Amino acid sequence: IEAGLSINPDKESFFAPSEGWVFLGFCFDGKNVDIAPKTVEKLKGKMYRKSRSLLRWSDKNNIDGKKAAKAFIKKFNKKLLEGAEDNELTWSLWFFSVISTADSLKVIDNYAKDCIRYVATGKRTKKRFDFRYEDMKSLGYKSLVHEYYSYVDDNK
What are the extents of the domains in the chain? Predict the structure, then answer.
């Protein structure tokens, strides 16, 4: 014990190497490291709230759905993929450098696409699929799965 620090026995845990664990937003299932389910759910909650907020904003100000969808994409591209400086720790760098599977990224990508479609069309029905993936890409959408595999390829 140094500098007055001590280990809290209530928070101390020991695991066999093959057992799973969740720590600092990561989960390990005995084979792969992925983003923890709670972290995914928190991010989905932020996306849900932002999509509703942007839809209300676009309705209130008579703004085109595509413009609102572009604002959603810009917000989450910045939050997840971009940093102010090259050496800044971003969400993607934090997770991409550790995870070994894209399973949770697929879940996040699918949810983000659904939110974008909702913002663009104002619909949660099948009608939202009139707003295609190509439309999202034209507004600047970046797939986390694609960015993850690009990161992995660049850092081999």
Answer: 36-154
pTM: 0.85
Which among 151, 146, 64 is positioned nearest to 113, based on CA atoms? Answer: 146
pLDDT in tens, 26-39: 998 888 999 999 99
With vertex at residue 74, the alpha carbon angle to CA 23 and CA 46, rounded to the nearest 5 degrees, is: 40
Left if phi > 0, otherwise alpha if psi is -120 to 50, otherwise beta: which for 122? Answer: left
134's enclosing H/E stretch is helix 133-138
pLDDT at 54 over 90: yes
> Order of strands across the sheet with 21-23?
21-23, 26-28, 33-35
Please choose, from the candidates 25, 4, 18, 14, the residue with its C-alpha nearest in 3D space to the C-alpha of residue 98: 25
Residue 83, C-beta contacts closer than 8 angstroms, at least 6 positions apart: 89, 90, 93
What single DSSP character describes residue 140?
T
> Of the candidates 75, 85, 67, which has an alpha carbon nearest to the alpha carbon of residue 142?
75
Paired residues of 34 in beta bridges: 27
Q: Please check whether residue 145 is in contact with residue 106, taking contact to mean a CB–CB distance below 8 angstroms.
A: yes
